[in-house]
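does this look right to u?? cytidine-5'-triphosphate version
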Amino acid sequence: MGEGRGGEPPFVVLGVGAGIAAYKAVEVCRRLVDAGMHVAPVLTEHAQRFVGRTTFDALASEPARVSVWEGGAPIAHTRLGQLADVVVVAPATADLLGRAAAGLADDLLTTTLVATRAPVVLCPAMHTEMWEHPAVQENLSVLKRRGAVVVPPDTGRLAGGDVGTGRLAEPERIVAAVVGALSGRERVGHARDLVGRRVLVTAGGTREPIDPVRVITNRSSGKQGHALAEAAHRRGADVVLVTTTSLPTSPGIDVVRVETAADLEQAVAGYGAADVVVMAAAVADFRPVAAAGTKLHKADGPPSLVLEPTPDVLRGLAARRRVGQVLVGFAAETDDVLERARGKLAAKGVDLLVANDVSAPGVGFDHDTNAVSILGADGTLTDVPLTSKDAVADAVLDRVVALLAGR
Ligand code: CTP
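got this back:
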């Protein structure tokens, strides 16, 4: 384990939010102390309804704090943030994530989060409905963009007997993330392991014109592709994102907006030298042979659409593959997911095929969450249970980094 400043044990602020999982924060506290860290617990006011501060007083390196006005006299509200080598929040409730994303500083814990320059490790825990709510996922995206490491929740039994995603990660994983953050080798979220790599990502559903006002398209939102581009950018890559959407992107990502499969093919052809190509776009398989030049009118009766196949961009890339290049394909399926994915992995000639069952709740189109299986041409299979699209992106990139390392 690393050391803090000046050879002192690392100074860890352990933030505890008001969730039933607060009881697990006690175990996290104990393990961090056992690992040789100086642990300063900060509970939110309502966290105390779930677990008493005396428990933390007994186990931590210093007494637990709740308020900026502790003991009648104000402590310097920025002191803990300045002292911290890492701030870990477990459990991070939906409310706490919202306040942190908004930059509020309305209690000691949020003040510490705003006042620190240390790495921040967030361990969300909440009911599945709350975890999947766009507000929560967007807040997490904001916090990750600012550099926070997120330890995603597990799937399992939740408070009240429900089963789903939202259970606080096991203390062991939380401690590992804290150790990783301290040593600058954090695995979840922002390892800088793609520095110097050129990564091309495609995202969104193509739109094939029928006439000047109508198109054939699909349900792809582009969110997973955008999450991949953002994650690659965070990890230090030079990223080009070819997208059909107008979703916002971080400064520093080169964005090429396209509409049709033909546009996308042309844009991709310009970046053949990329070290990694991730084809997350849902490219139309067929398009009208010729779009009408003027609007078709109802009075003319139903149009007879003659369709032709579009070029298979991914297959084309695989045929012209550069030595050492890593190609990643996607497959959105509704049935026989793994079997179809295995077929596509071979047929497309890619290194990794990311398959998802878009008929499952919370998975795929337009959700902020996803669950995927990552199949490798080397026979490997990595299952990523329901989590944020950002976490899926990092899981895919972890596999990409491993492949690049072996080339
Ligand atoms: N793809 C592509 N060009 C196309 C169609 C698909 O590059 N014209 C890419 C997608 O971006 C994705 C992968 O191929 O990475 C698989 O897409 P999918 O539509 O699932 O595969 P298809 O071969 O079109 O098979 P299906 O009959 O299931 O649509």
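Residues 185-189 have pLDDT under 50 and may be disordered. idk if thats expected tbh
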